[in-house]
Write a structure and sequence with these properties.
The chain is α/β, with parallel strands linked by helices. Helix content is about 45%, strand content about 15%.
Length: about 400
């Protein structure tokens, strides 16, 4: 079976970013599937006179379109990057003779080449919904034009109607799709396959005795909350700065290490300076590769994931949540939805409210000092990751979806 995997932001573990697509592609290869990935890159080594560059690693054939992209780009230039990828990727897809296409959003436009390929070559496709897009971007006010909204919702409907199967990354995403397009998805196969807890990588990728965090900070904190991800508008990392300001006078040994890049990093840094927490209990660091993350999670006491207070964002299936579980650490979040329910059900972390009262801040500080509870949550996190969110579990679900469509 030849699988064409469309993901605009495919990353290898040696790069910074999520590696769900790499991990799944690797498992598909091990199942005997010939995997070809169509993606973009900002790496200058792939700039050439030819439109596409072929790179093969781990038996995965990756077809790169050199198209620099960053969250720091103006909104119009980001939209232009999506349009360019759709245009060139469509012709690339049509040049392949494959059995199945797997299109992984975001952006939503990733579904366009898959649709056109189905119409012209009758190749079935599976659509993976990694985020509630465009619902989320509309909710945060990034898209306000009524015509643009209608076009995006029309495209979303068109993708679902043409897909052989839909793979949302959370139950909340599935509920949103079913609620908004009941007539379209009535007889569709919808299989929830959450993000992957990369257990092997996070349990084997660290070195006992190494002090990477201590080296970065210049001292060894009592309790470290680690954030490793994007500094974007929807992430709302300003919340962490306000939390740090409140906890500093209560316990200066509780620190927050924020790792990553994004359009709002300078905003977060400026706020941290204004609140006089930078270099005291807040430390901002550059992005690291996925290969370096296990060591940081191993040395930290807790992972974290945050979003601004918009309900549509609660459905997210962020890598940060699953990386934390895979590392066997409790997770800190500040939103409701399915992740809050998981934390409560399995006792794997702590949920802070949107508005921080003095009592809530004090309770969180006390929680970080409860060594017995923290140790129990570490055990529960790894057990949950192993049982529910392992690569093996996700791959098996995907293979079953593929088998229901074509012969594997």
């Amino acid at each position: 079976m030849i699988l064409l995997y469309l993901h605009q932001y495919f990353k290898f573990p040696s790069e910074s970013g999520g590696t769900r697509s790499f991990d799944l592609a690797s498992s598909f290869v091990q199942s005997g599937i010939d995997v070809h990935v169509i993606t973009t890159t900002s790496d200058e080594k792939f700039r050439s006179n030819r439109r596409w560059s072929l790179y093969k690693q781990c038996e995965i054939s990756v077809h790169y379109l050199f198209l620099p992209y960053s969250n720091d780009l103006p909104y119009f230039k980001r939209i232009l990057a999506f349009v360019k990828f759709v245009w060139f990727a469509t012709f690339k897809v049509l040049s392949f003779n494959c059995d199945l296409v797997l299109a992984s959003s975001t952006p939503l436009t990733i579904g366009i080449p898959a649709i056109i390929n189905k119409w012209l070559q009758r190749t079935p496709f599976v659509f993976e919904v990694r985020d509630v897009w465009p619902e989320a971007v509309i909710a945060v006010g990034a898209i306000t034009n009524p015509l643009a909204k209608k076009i995006l919702f029309f495209l979303e409907r068109l993708i679902y109607a043409n897909a052989e199967a839909i793979i949302p990354l959370s139950e909340d995403m599935k509920s949103s799709i079913v609620k908004r397009f009941p007539d379209v998805v009535l007889n569709k196969k919808i299989c929830v396959i959450e993000n992957i807890a990369e257990i092997y990588r996070f349990q084997k990728g660290f070195v006992n005795g190494r002090n990477l965090l201590e080296t970065k900070l210049g001292f060894a904190p009592r309790f470290t909350v680690l954030y490793a991800g994007t500094f974007g508008r929807v992430n709302g990392i300003e919340y962490v700065i306000r939390l740090a300001r409140r906890t500093l006078p209560l316990d200066s040994t509780l620190v927050y290490v924020l790792i990553g890049d994004g359009a709002y990093k300078s905003v977060v840094k400026d706020l941290a300076i204004d609140e006089n927490v930078i270099g005291r209990n807040v430390f901002l660091c550059d992005s690291v590769s996925k290969e370096e993350l296990p060591q940081l999670y191993h040395e930290a006491n807790m992972g974290s994931s945050f979003v601004i207070p918009i309900r549509e964002l609660w459905a997210n299936s962020a890598n940060k949540f699953f990386d934390t579980l895979a590392a066997g650490k409790p997770i800190l979040i500040n939103y409701e939805g399915w992740q809050k329910n998981i934390i409560s059900k399995y006792n794997v972390g702590y949920v802070l409210p949107e508005t921080l009262s003095d009592l809530e801040v004090l309770r969180f500080v006390d929680y970080t000092k409860n060594d017995t509870l923290i140790k129990a949550q570490q055990i529960h996190s790894l057990e949950l990751a192993t049982k529910e969110y392992s690569l093996e579990a996700a791959s098996e679900k995907y293979i079953n979806v593929f088998k229901s469509i074509v012969y594997v």
